[in-house]
Amino acid sequence: MSAGLFGLLDDVAVLARLAAASGRATAKAVAVVIDDTAVTPQYVHGIAAERELPIIKRIAIGSLRNKLLVILPVAMLFSQFAPRLLTPMLMLGAVYLCYEGAEKIWESIGGHGAEAPPVAEADVVTGAIRTDLILSAEIMVIALDEVADEAFVPRLVILVVVAVVLTALVYGVVAVIVKMDDVGLHLIETGSRIGRQLGRVLVAGMPKLLSALSAIGMVAMLWVGGHILLAGCNRLGWRAPYGLVHDAADQARHSVKFFGPVLAWLVETASSAVIGLVVGIVVVALMHLLSFARRGRFSRQT
Question: Where are the domains of the chain?
Answer without folding.
Answer: 14-243
